[in-house]
Amino acid sequence: MSGASDSNGQPWVGRRLRRKEDPPLITGRGRYTDDHSLPGMLFAAIVRSPEAHARVVSIDASAAKQRPGVHAVLTGEDLRLESPLPCAWVPPGVEMNVPDHWPLARGEVNHVGDPVAVVVGQDRYAVVDAAEDVFVEYDPLPVVVDPQEALRDGAPLVHEQFGTNRVHRWSLGADDVEQVLERSDVVIERRIVNHRTSGAPIEPRAVLADYRSGELTVTTSTQVPHFVRLFLALMLGMSEERIRVIAPDVGGGFGAKLQMYGEEALCAAVARHLNRPVKWVETRSEHMMVSHHGRDQVATVRMGATRDGRLTGVHIQLVADLGAYLMLLTPLIPTLGAFVMTGCYEWESARVDITGVFTNKVATDAIRGAGRPEATHMLEVTMDQLAAELGLDPLELRRRNFIPKERFPAETALGMVYDSGDYHGTLARLLEHIDPAEVRREAEGLRARGVYRGIGFSTYTEICGLAPSRIAGPAGVGVQAGLWESALVRVHVSGAVTVYSGTSPHGQGLDTSFAQIVADRLGISPQQVEVMHGDTATGPQGLGTYGSRSLSVGGEAIVKATERVIDKARRIVAHRLEAAPEDVELREGRFSIAGSPDRGMTLAEIAGEAYVVDNMPAGFEPGLEATAFYDPENFVFPFGAHAAVVDVDVETGKVDVVRYVAVDDCGPAINPMLIDGQVHGGIAHAIGQALYERIHYDDEGQLVTGTFVDYALPSAAELPSFETDRTETPSTTTSMGVKGVGEAGTIAASPAVVNAVVDALRPLGIEFLNMPLSPQRVWEAVQQAQEGVRA
Amino acid sequence: MIPAEFDYTAPDTLDAVFAALADGGEDAKLLAGGHSLLPLMKLRLAFPSLLVDLRRVPGLSGVTRSNGDFRIGAMTPHAVLEHTGELGLVARVAGTIADPQVRHRGTIGGSLAHGDPASDLPAAMLVTEARMTLRSAGGAERTVAADDLFVDYLTTAVGEGEVMTEVAVPALDGWGFGYAKFNRRAEDWAMVAACAVVQAQDGVCRDVRVGLTNMASRPLRAEAVEDALRGQPLEADAIARAAELAAEGTDPPGDLNATPDYKRHLARVMTRRALAEAAGTEPGR
């Protein structure tokens, strides 16, 4: 570990400590799900539908069953499940069409890759061969792929029983928005497409299920082990305490592992059925095909302003392609975006109308940002469009409409209460790093060489720290769960500390930041703090890692538990040193008596007293540990200002991001290096969507981008060195003032890139473009613009 | 990503390789670096019954110069070509293949025998007018010109039971060279690429050869461009005029990211850039 070996009076919080979890991961000693094996273990391979929509006429597994080493071939009816896969969003007062969704299809398949049968056998290769010997007869049904097409009368129906492809309608905001727009000096309308993307973590999913003597243990690459346990209990008809779910080392999730997947229930059911451990490991091709996708929203954005650039109203009508089934949070995702659809700005009126649609594609659900990248993109791209319409500098339009920092906590036109913000502050800091006028001067010089340089901005705020139960839960937004977090802080007899968190980190670096938080409070080194998570058999119930919640909710639970430990430590010190507990304070690594710093005890000495108990008064409860649950009063709202500089080769249409500057504000930094890492990854993710990545289905519902050859995930070679900086505006929700940062870069970056490309191409008369800005799309736009000039 | 079942052998002499190929029959495949074949097997697009790995056969790797040719062992990895600067165009092209991992595993012989028209090296072989040595059982040996090697998509003149052992690349001493490759990501196959070698005399193009990647089911020479530029001054205008002919005689396959029209346009742009780099009128990108 870098940094000092002791605290030297300087807090650990705020330091750029290297991640204590990394040595095993970067030396090949990590233990991912596929690194776990059990005696007698069988492997599963899944027979998947090549059809996007079909009735399953028959399944002939006789040849597969004849193959050596094949133990069983099971189909949908064989699994004996009590309930289908869950959709955990039930918004009060909203009618929603929810189709049954089983781990193996029952009579009908609704997207390419929909599982039809599972082959279980001794050899992980042989089961894949055997799966090719399962002959399924399909009776194809009409396919619908485009969500707007799916809403038209007479469109093929994904689920015939509903008589419509509409899943639900959900609205937020004021009824008068159209009247406000009508009264506005200027109104613009844009159709903004957020195309479908994949989460694509480096470790695909994997499941190992072991059922013995009525107890089920499932090791799975998930972000939400406690949710998986609950739903396994419901689906298998088991009592929850009989099930243990372990998320071991998890190689990234990006939301794609915030799910209750069919394969998790399938492996568990098959393990129970055969009384043998069963392992399934997703291939990359399967990941692209069947792990839930993200985005896929088409919005009509209407935005109004006065002639002098005061925003009046914004009305967003959004069609969300939810795919063929409603998975854990599928229909909720556009709603999460709606909460921050007003961005950093003051409006007279705002409204979001969402229509969810079934199509014959895999379900969409949370992918890093989950609705907020879409929201920011719609808003920030349209802001630039409006600025152009008004003849205003895009930053000036933003400045004229920022919610001023004195106004916080600020209630927005959509009824959210933003905890804190200083939007002028982050933008001013950004402009210390990058001078738009200088970029424009460079652009003049480059144009003669066929290189069009542009600069684009995004000033964003987002909503994260998912919690609070009161707002997000069943009676509020309608998530069928509490959204608090838990922690157990245990001081061992030697003074070493184990922290159990209900979050489930999978690459964020939280082992390190949690240890920093606890170390400062207990007067020890982060190296003496072990952080445990991701196992339902250890520590209290928790809710997992997603929605940038682990620090601002999980970290606060750890603070609360640590404070309870400190209370007891104080009482022990007070008793031993004959002082009042309130006079005990932590100074230079010792709990000492105020005013007498030489009289004190280290945590190890206190723990010794707590566990050996030979000097404690009668009635003393031994031990030194505490559990706490934390449920905040509000969300947290990180914010920031980003700038992208792009070069467009107008001859080929290729866009190159040459500079990217990000100023983010997630409150006080626990570990600035981890924040940088999160921001870097988040920006890379969004540049991926803006320029490279796109899940594409053809008209027959066949997945065209099923490998990394076609699905253009960018690498470091395509990205600039990011320039990052921060401002620190504490949240008023959390005790540490912290907000989340895991998704901020993804939420911020795509509009900055698109705005920069449009800025670059304005001299050619190009005023608007939708993502992904692939070379061909840009080249075609340039061709059209030049033909327009010639015509 | 699990291949179908196959057998594997790694003989340590060429004779043993020929014997294994004969035993394995028509479904036996040679394995060099594996960076084309293994992905196809994992996607279950290729199902060889036997892989005959060449890695233990001595004498198939390395670059030497003799009699005006560079003689390149077929098992020489791209990374060695990339760092052998005197190879000129071949080094320049090899340095753009995929990513460093692939360049350290993938081999020139494997790439050429695979015959993928989107690969970088085939067009460079056409413009350098390289010759490939193919050996087979019983000491038989024949030489095939690059232009005859590439037959069709993933189809080459390498016959059953034949092993490419060496590639002879004429050293184009004094020629300028350039390579312009268009792809979305650094690691991608070329959407379109053009390579060029130019022999100049007093600012005039004495001779020129241009090769196109991924513009048909096999790599192509852009003969119309060559004819138009030969004898012309090596200046930007003449190069641009000649490059406008680059799409003549091409038949590029369309895909998700590029229509045939867009590829033809890119061929003209890439050809101009490759020529300009070769002629020194514009630095390479």
Low-confidence runs of at least 5 consecutive residues of chain B: none
How many structural domains does the protein architecture of chain A include?
3
| Unreliable residue runs of chain A | 1-5
How would a crystallographer describe the biggest sheet of chain B? 5 strands, antiparallel
CATH domain fold name of the largest domain in chain A: Aldehyde Oxidoreductase, domain 4
* CATH architecture identity of the largest domain in chain A: 2-Layer Sandwich
Please identify the top-level CATH class of the largest domain in chain A: Alpha Beta
Topology diagram in text:
The complex is a heterodimer of chains A (791) and B (285).
Chain A: H1 22-26, E1 42-48, E2 54-60, H2 62-66, E3 70-75, E4 108-109, E5 115-121, H3 126-131, E6 135-140, H4 147-150, E7 166-173, H5 177-183, E8 186-198, E9 206-212, E10 215-220, H6 225-236, E11 243-246, H7 262-274, E12 278-281, H8 284-290, E13 293-305, E14 311-323, H9 333-338, E15 349-358, H10 372-390, H11 394-401, E16 410-411, E17 417-418, H12 423-433, H13 436-447, E18 451-461, H14 469-472, E19 485-491, E20 497-501, H15 510-522, E21 529-532, H16 550-577, E22 584-587, E23 590-593, E24 596-601, H17 603-612, E25 625-630, E26 639-649, E27 654-665, H18 672-692, E28 722-726, H19 744-761, H20 775-790
Parallel strand pairs in A: 1-12, 10-11, 14-15, 20-21, 27-28
Antiparallel strand pairs in A: 1-5, 2-4, 2-6, 3-5, 7-15, 8-13, 9-10, 9-12, 13-14, 16-17, 18-26, 19-20, 19-25, 22-23, 23-24, 26-27
Helix pairs in contact in A: 6-7, 10-11, 10-19, 15-16, 18-19
Chain B: E1 7-9, H1 14-24, E2 28-31, H2 37-42, E3 50-53, E4 63-66, E5 69-73, H3 78-82, H4 89-94, H5 100-105, H6 108-114, H7 121-128, E6 131-136, E7 140-145, H8 146-149, E8 150-152, E9 155-156, E10 163-170, E11 176-182, E12 192-201, E13 204-213, E14 220-221, H9 223-229, H10 236-243, H11 260-279
Parallel strand pairs in B: 1-3, 2-3
Antiparallel strand pairs in B: 4-5, 5-10, 6-7, 6-10, 8-9, 11-12, 12-13, 13-14
Helix pairs in contact in B: 9-10, 10-11
